[in-house]
Amino acid sequence: MAVILYHKKLSDGFFLLKAEAHARVFPGQFYMLRAWGDCPVLSRPVSVYDADGDGVTFLYKVVGKGTRIISKLKPGDDITLQGPYGNGFFDVLGDASGSIAMVGGGVGIAPFYYTAKKLKIKYPKVSVDMYLGFSGTPLLLDAFGRVSDNLVTDVGGYITDKIAPEKYGQILTCGPQAMMRALYQKCKTAGVSEKLYVSLENRMACGIGTCLVCSCRTTDGNKKTCADGPVFKGEAVFSL
Amino acid sequence: MNMEVNFSGARFKNPVALASGTCGFGRELNKIIDLSRLGGISTKGLTLNRRDGNDGIRIWETEGGIMNSVGLENPGVKGFIDNELTFVRSLDTVGIVNLGGHSIDDYLEGIKLLNDVRLDILELNISCPNLKQGGMSFGVKTEIAREIVRKSRALCKHTLVVKLSPNAEDITALARMCEDEGADGVSLVNTFLALAIDINAKKPVFQNIYAGLSGPAIKPIALRMVHQVARAVKIPVMGMGGISNAGDAIEFIMAGASVIQVGTASFIDPSRPIEIVGGIEKYLSDNKIGDIREITGIV
Lengths: 240, 299
Ligand SMILES: Cc1cc2nc3c(=O)[nH]c(=O)nc-3n(C[C@H](O)[C@H](O)[C@H](O)COP(=O)(O)OP(=O)(O)OC[C@H]3O[C@@H](n4cnc5c(N)ncnc54)[C@H](O)[C@@H]3O)c2cc1C
Ligand SMILES: Cc1cc2nc3c(=O)[nH]c(=O)nc-3n(C[C@H](O)[C@H](O)[C@H](O)COP(=O)(O)O)c2cc1C
Ligand code: FES
Prior knowledge:
The complex is a heterodimer.
Chain A: E1 2-9, E2 14-20, E3 30-34, E4 44-47, E5 50-51, E6 55-61, H1 65-71, E7 78-85, H2 89-93, E8 99-105, H3 110-122, E9 127-134, H4 141-146, E10 150-155, E11 170-174, H5 177-189, E12 196-199, E13 215-218, E14 221-224, E15 231-233, H6 234-238
Parallel strand pairs in A: 8-9, 8-11, 9-10, 11-12
Antiparallel strand pairs in A: 1-2, 1-7, 2-6, 3-4, 3-7, 5-6, 12-15, 13-14
Chain B: E1 5-7, E2 10-12, E3 16-18, H1 27-30, E4 40-42, E5 59-62, E6 65-68, H2 76-83, H3 85-90, E7 94-99, H4 104-115, E8 121-125, H5 142-155, E9 159-163, H6 171-180, E10 185-188, E11 192-195, E12 197-198, E13 203-204, E14 210-214, H7 219-232, E15 237-239, H8 246-255, E16 259-262, H9 265-268, H10 272-286
Parallel strand pairs in B: 3-4, 3-16, 4-7, 7-8, 8-9, 9-10, 10-15, 15-16
Antiparallel strand pairs in B: 1-2, 5-6, 6-14, 11-14, 12-13
The structure holds flavin-adenine dinucleotide (FAD), flavin mononucleotide and FE2/S2 (inorganic) cluster (FES).
The site of flavin mononucleotide has 25 residues of chain B, from loops.
């Protein structure tokens, strides 16, 4: 059980929730969240938006039963956090240098605040261009502005239209499958598809690698999105 | 207080085991909970050859349950023996190896390979689709299942437990057949065949159309089936289906299960199976019952 330290409604059903946690968290990892008894049966996977000495913050969107229950919680209430789970971006990236693009769509922007923040600390010379696509009101632009060198946003269109992939040493993306696939195609056309890293959002049950409901097909055989991912090389999942 | 159960020669330190497919081969869970505190663990269902499993969505939440369509993704019997068996055997708990198949030859070849290794129990999963019968599960019709059980029994050197499908036409007849053919025990229930439809896409949610329902929603029906089967046979019974707490587990034990398995509830909380062990102990001590066997099958 973790105590909720902060909970704020942003807009369009988006919330920021901070809960007490002291684990070491890597960018791109996620927690399994629940704030109810045995039903709904499954806990909900949510990426780390930020983490510091006091706790971990999530940016989530209310879409169904579970997130609706979570959205009703108040500071001081308890929430169950299991995690942090998954590999995260740094595991897959290797060393970073030059210019890095982060391309998030919808609530897929969530992992990039902490990723950019940590990347800047680890590699001070790296520059980060943040591309955020929204369907409604843009969110957290101040925060994302603080951790990036350039912030490009799009509302209602295709954020992938605004990026020139060949400019970057590495491109990280998270968001709707169609957006990530479009970005992969664009990278491929530009001849730089090996620079793309994707964070997948497959449905999960255990979150730790025991049940195989989150398997994804990759060029290297089946992988567990929860334990081997959620971050994979774009080519490994989209070139099939 | 005695929690130990002798299940056809396999000694469970307590009657709580993990159900196949919900705990992999124990590696990941063993980092989170101490598996040696459990009675046993049933591995992910193996097939003779490795399988990549089903395409499309594999999990769907329902009211009080989940539907899954993993499609028996597994490393194959050889892959298991080479890479997982040593770990499963290193756990201080009864190792149950779950084996499925899509033809009788699949089962028999798998059993042959497993005959050469040490394991505690072979759990024969007869809920798999039979490719020769248009995909109908082997475990639906007693006479079709009989052939597999008979041939498996003749070949298998291990303690053989047949895992029954709740989709069977007559589950007590199926259990009696297993007893007649020499099985050392039966386990039940596997998942209930179920359907979910995406009304916006006007299509089934799952690529395979039907998927298996498990979790709290199935518990009362599973409990009834365990009760009926336990009354119909003399061989011991492992009960499962929606067990989520010690009270549920005790119900299954009272209905006649010597050992119970916990599946879906591990997704609610991976420590739940260990909490269930503690809860059963507390029940026995609160009620001044010295031995778990005193309540087995009392209802
Ligand atoms: C690794 C990972 C990271 C994620 N990070 C975030 C994040 O930072 N912020 C955020 O808002 N959302 C994130 N999601 C999506 C989030 O898990 C779902 O929106 C959430 O589970 C929906 O739950 P619900 O009860 O509100 O919806 P319901 O539709 O009632 O959920 C029913 C079932 O479907 C699953 N489900 C529904 N939608 C999704 C989805 N898009 N992805 C995965 N499972 C889904 C639920 O987990 C649940 O098991 C992430 C998903 C994954 C896999
Ligand atoms: C994700 C998942 C995978 C499963 N895989 C198998 C399997 O490989 N072999 C098998 O015999 N049963 C399998 N089962 C069935 C369970 O072992 C168990 O019989 C069933 O889920 C009912 O118990 P429960 O309600 O406690 O989960 C699986 C169940 C789930 C939820
Ligand atoms: S969610 Fe269970 S293996 Fe990934």
